[in-house]
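To whoever is covering the structure queue this week,

Two jobs came back overnight. Logging them here so there's a record in the thread.

Job A:
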Amino acid sequence: TFETWNVASYKAEADLGSPQVVDLGCHVLNPKGNDESVARRIIQLVPASLSFDYFAARRKIQGDDSAGSPPSPTGRQFDPPITDEQVGASFHDAPYKNNEATIAFVYFSEIENQYDDAKPIVAALIRLIGELLIGTPGYHSQSNMLAFPDVNEAVKFGLRLMEELKETKLTDDYADLSKLIKLGCVHDTFLTMGPHKTTGRADYFGKVVNRAARITAKSELGTVNYGVLADDSVGKLPRLDRSIISELKGIKQLKGVQEEMALYECTLDTRPLGLQRGRVVPMM
């Protein structure tokens, strides 16, 4: 289980030969001698000499495709564990097809700024994010980094998270934490991805990660946003549910990003369902 690995992982290099760590997701287990089932996140450890090189297998081919694909990685891959049920996404469920993903960040630094003992509040928020991801196509890559197959799913999750935080009070003063966080996302190709060496969760590399982080940093507190290249036409904007309104908030020059990016803020259309059309509002 992840709890066991969290205690023992410091021995990974010295005593265990640095095994490959793969997150298998959350599973329902029925331990012997226990009348009640329990849900636990499962970690798979593979000896380094037998491990499959996911980073090589999922590396984006650069330049002329006619140069041929790189050699097929060697190593072992295994069937899913035998449990009562898988209820949370695993590394194998993280988006990677065609080397594309929507990377999203949830920034909660304002919580850390406003509360002297912010650690338990942030920990509760991270747990809530994990719970809300169950049953969605989203994947919890890092504490504040998420991966989705497309912008629509990321925005829907962000808006749901904001609504949940208005009702779920995680602080002693019953503050509305939706006003103290922000979510931003970008869809693009990534260079490669594979399991993080300690957590086993999907770790992404490429421009999309930095762009998503920068878009989030430029967003306002309490908002859900996405970014696209500024020279993309309206026809290239992501297709969102009809219940979502996206408003252009400006063209941004982001640190570490050569191209200018357009920042769109998303809100729920509160009109009756029959009147909802899903629309993009230009910057006033």
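Job B:
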Amino acid sequence: MKFRAVISSVAGGAPVQDTIHKVLLALHKLQKVTKGPSPGSIQSIVLQLSPEGFAFCHKGGVDEGSQTWSHFQAAKLFQDYRIESKRSNKISLEAQIPNLLHVFSSCANSDVTTLRLANGQDGRPVLHFDFSLAGNATDHKVGQEVPVRVIPELEAEGIREPEMPEPAFQIELPGSVAKLRNVLDRMKQVGATLVAVEASKEAGGADLPGGKAWLKLSAESEVVQITTTFPSLNLVMEGKNEPAPERSVALQLSLKRLAEVMS
């Protein structure tokens, strides 16, 4: 099997390495706030590589049976992306999150980062990263390796993202996610355990791509009720086949779980 990819530090105005690092950091925090794992255990993550791109699969959370999937499209992130395997050009790897955090933090300021699947000095598989860091007189070439476990085909075929119905709404969150986190924190402080989330289209946004929507969060305890509405949020249509409904959609979530995801 073969895998090689070249990451440009800027794609669509955002540093790609830094974006991946932030996703890994969020998954790292997601695990840290759980009751498990046992002391001394190392957090790991599954990398699902395919011709279309790659995905992180992280198991854990408030509910030990939960999964978090993060998808990255090869065409949007990489200048060059090549993968070959006997599994219809798919490769599944397991790596420790702290190791990936370290290497993506190290290469965050590099203009170009090359990663490839290779054998390390001990003969075991690694993801090898090559990048350059700017120095006072000249750039410094850096090579770092992340040990990985190549997941056997039978085990890899059992790692599948649960089938989910198409979401009614895909909403771009407020520019400052801290505002949303502050609302959730206030709800927890008054003793609420559940939060009602409601979304609906806004009138007058039909002339905009995707349109606009409002998002309402409501929670209550024995003594107080808190309701916050975020207006004029962008509706995201990428990946959707059906338009957002004209009616509002509401659901109830665990406040602890939602706050954990937004941490």
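Note for Job B: Residues 95 and 148 are 5 Å apart (CA to CA).

Please reply-all if you pick these up so we don't duplicate work.
Q.
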